[in-house]
Amino acid sequence: MLLPARMRKLYIITLKEYAKPMIRALHEEGIVQIEDVSERIERDVQWRRIMKAGEATPEASKVSSLLMRVSGILDFFKIAEPKRGMMDTLKNIINPPIPKKREVKDLSTRGIISKAEKVLNEVESKTKNIEKKLDELDSEEDELKDVLSLSKMLIDFDVDFSEISRFKHVSVIVGKLPAENFERFKKEIKDITEEVVFSATGNEKEKIIFVIVNKNYHNDVFRLLRKLEFEKFDIEKLEGKPKEIVKEVNERLKEIKKEKKELISKIREIKREWENDLLVLRELLEIEKERNEIFSNFGETSNTVLMEAWVPKKKLNKAMKIIQDATDNHCVIEHSKGSKDAPILLDNPSFAKPFEPLLKIYSPPNYHEYDPTIFMAIIFPFFYGFCASGVFTGALVLLTGYILYRGLGKVNKTMKDFGIILIVCGVWALVWGLLTGEFFGDFLPRFLHMELPTVMHNLEPLKNPQNLLILALGVGLAQLILGLVTGAVNNIKRGKWKIALFDQISWLLLIIAAGIVYLGISMKFSLAMYSGIGLFVIALGLIVYEVGLIGLMETFTFLGRWLSYSRLTALCIAGSSCGMAVNILVQMSQGPTIFNYIIMALIFVSGHLAFAMLHALVSFIHSLRLHYVEFFEQFYEGEGREFIPFSAKRIFTKLKK
């Protein structure tokens, strides 16, 4: 149970004509992970002499092309989706829509291609013209907005810009100039020519200038302007006077908006009619794409294909039967035991499964080491409750977890697992809150002069922090010992006696020795004390023998890891202190007026809510850290690769039986 699922490696050879049925059957069952043989063939000369690397089927590129077209239409439909507000988003989290699965026939690749082309041709005949028209309107709208922006800047100039192109002997330059350079321009332009007329509008920062100059002096004037950080406007697109242009453009923009609204309404109708069909079609094409591209992982000869795959030992017989049935027994199957390169499938009891993602975030275990998920499932919520102890914090986390579990958890397994984790953690935080008397800080004794009937006075954070510290260090030491024992057993089982002795058993002896010395001193039992000292010297000698004098420093490192568990107490006290601080602020806001009561309510609600959310998050991070940094350091190697089954992911479809 503590080890990952035992794996078996399959070696399958079958005739090419049976390869597709075999792949379809395995894909639907989703119990094997197919390995890439082609890479080994490319590297190994011996392999290349007997076979070549496989290739995706001829239909693969066609399927990919059709999939892109379907995805493109579904993306196009998104412009017709109404804008969702905060309430809509919240509703989707609390009660997300569950897709209805449509029964579909088990069509061949060619059958699905034919069906896809038929549907796409029909849908695209309705959407292409609309899409083209929308693109045209978008382009026109962008151009008009540029014209509008330019016209507004030039609105003070009563000039018909359509006449400018007819000027033969003069050149017109229009643009923007920093205000501090305008006076310099007026002065230096006279040094170039007197045959110039200009006008300017603007503000203290910049000036919009309109310059008319003899064409012979155009380049000289423009060179001067560029030197003065001039930004030229493109006035060729302007037709008419700026005021008239602004009016006409605004009217056209309104028309475009109306036209786009009508087109989007048509898209919405098409979406309503075809979206479900396209979602089904996309899923079918995605499945076919995987099936047709997986052949590039195989080795092949002129008549046969070679496939290698991993399967959990429990499902070995089932996988072999599927292959034999799909190939009419025209196959050769061999299997071997899992080795260190086997993919990792975590195999935990149902209560621990939701905690598997927390382990995967760090790293899956390797094939030959213990999976610590069960330990995390038991210890992590306890640590979290210790850190986040509080009735309100616990209830908030519990409610959040329940909403995730009953909401997004219905359509997303990760959210379901995380919801369960939060529910369990919330319950522990609530229980710890009841035991420590943490109910909105010191709300009950401060305002109601009472306390929770469940409170254990020896565990009150602000009155007896030393007891909580002793408890935190006690459970911390217990977890470190658990890690050392787990590592020792695992190494002994794998025949690594030396590693077990020097990396784990020596530290266990050191802890036992320290415990004996402490008891000997406490009970004034000198024999026990000297026995403990002797054992301590032996344990320390083992450590120094293995790593040298640096082993003496390692004892301080281990001590530091142990003291890290004091953060459990620190966070527990911090939660109570923050709650008390909010209550003090509430008390300071007391007064005879309704305004005082409003302020008190605002401080109470916002303060406790903010601190509870922050406390909940920080407690999660630090509880996780104690596992990743302190606990795993004692025994866990990780670096396993996750088992990823070759599986048809069906959300919108199910095969007809």
**Tally of separate helices:** 21
The major β-sheet equals:
6 strands, antiparallel
What structural class results from the helix and strand content?
alpha+beta
Mean pLDDT: 89
Transmembrane segments: 374-405, 417-435, 468-489, 501-521, 527-547, 568-588, 594-618
GO cellular component, one term: proton-transporting V-type ATPase, V0 domain
Protein name: A-type ATP synthase subunit I
Pfam family, one: V_ATPase_I
Task: Note the main attributes of this structure.
single chain, 657 residues, alpha+beta, Alpha-Beta Plaits, six-stranded antiparallel sheet, four-stranded antiparallel sheet, transport, transmembrane, ATPase binding, coiled coil
Question: What's the gist of this structure?
Answer:
This protein is an alpha+beta fold and 657 residues long. It has helices at 16-29, 38-43, 45-50, 60-77, 86-94, 109-153, 179-192, 218-227, 242-293, 316-326, 356-362, 373-387, 391-406, 413-436, 443-448, 465-493, 497-522, 526-547, 550-563, 566-588, 594-631; strands at residues 7-15, 33-34, 52-53, 102-104, 170-178, 196-202, 206-214, 231-232, 299-300, 304-312, 331-337, 653-655. Among the domains are: 1-38 and 298-343, Alpha-Beta Plaits (2-Layer Sandwich), CATH 3.30.70.240; 159-240, Alpha-Beta Plaits, CATH 3.30.70.2750; 353-634, no CATH class.
Detailed description of the structure:
The mean pLDDT is 89. This protein has helices at 16-29, 38-43, 45-50, 60-77, 86-94, 109-153, 179-192, 218-227, 242-293, 316-326, 356-362, 373-387, 391-406, 413-436, 443-448, 465-493, 497-522, 526-547, 550-563, 566-588, 594-631, and strands at residues 7-15, 33-34, 52-53, 102-104, 170-178, 196-202, 206-214, 231-232, 299-300, 304-312, 331-337, 653-655. It has 21 helices and twelve strands. The longest helix has 52 residues, at 242-293. The strands form three sheets. Strands 1, 2, 3, 9, 10 and 11 form a six-stranded antiparallel β-sheet that branches. Helix 6 packs antiparallel against helix 9 (242-293), helix 12 runs parallel beside helix 20 and helix 16 (465-493) packs antiparallel against helix 17. It has 657 residues and is α+β, with helices and mostly antiparallel strands. Residues 113-150, 246-291 form a coiled coil. Its main location: membrane. Keywords: Coiled coil, Ion transport, Membrane, Transmembrane, Transmembrane helix, Transport.
